[in-house]
Amino acid sequence: MKSTIENTVEFVKEKLEGAEAGHDWFHIERVWKLAKKIGETENCDQDVVELSALLHDIADPKFHNGDETIAPRISREFLESQNVPNETIEKVLFVIENISFKNRGNAPVNPSLELQIVQDADRIDAIGAIGIARTFNFGGFKNNPMHDPAVQPSLNMSKEEYKKSNGTTINHFYEKLLLLKDLMNTEKGKKMAEERHDYMLNFLDQFYKEWNVD
């Protein structure tokens, strides 16, 4: 008999077939692996960590007109169909509803350990070489300019401003990616973020050299 985790993997693969490449099954798989790696260093509920990581982007609001209610609803319906205990379901939904970078201004006062772990995993996949590739992929998906020296990054955006932002891809590094290292929750997450953060700084140095034909 297949496990709940195996069934969840199949469900997510099917739901995300044809998704934008930065938010597809392979993104989920990486976050799942990262979450398990971080979870090994913490006294956490591993089932909640894995289920949350697998379901966290089942219906990313940016691809559903900003609707943040779809993912929790789909996740609840699926987990109930798997006879997952209600206590576990509530813990998974708590992670899904609070993981997003754009919601950091309304972050829960007492985030669960499982939320901290999966949030770190999701943020780690947004930085480094993979983060750079995902950022340019999404910028191309939205037909945003790569770079415009006349357009400055919009720092301290509200949640609504962030959701509607169509700035340049390079500005997104300053608006989000370079901020993530200092937002890590776990010790393992902090260590993993350091190398990827430095890689992005080196990339930006090289990008500006080539842009300016130095």
From TrEMBL:
<dbReference type="Pfam" id="PF01966">
    <property type="entry name" value="HD"/>
</dbReference>
<dbReference type="InterPro" id="IPR003607">
    <property type="entry name" value="HD/PDEase_dom"/>
</dbReference>
<keyword id="KW-0378">Hydrolase</keyword>
<protein>
    <submittedName>
        <fullName>Phosphohydrolase</fullName>
    </submittedName>
</protein>
<feature type="domain" description="HD">
    <location>
        <begin position="24"/>
        <end position="127"/>
    </location>
</feature>
<dbReference type="InterPro" id="IPR006674">
    <property type="entry name" value="HD_domain"/>
</dbReference>
<dbReference type="GO" id="GO:0016787">
    <property type="term" value="F:hydrolase activity"/>
</dbReference>
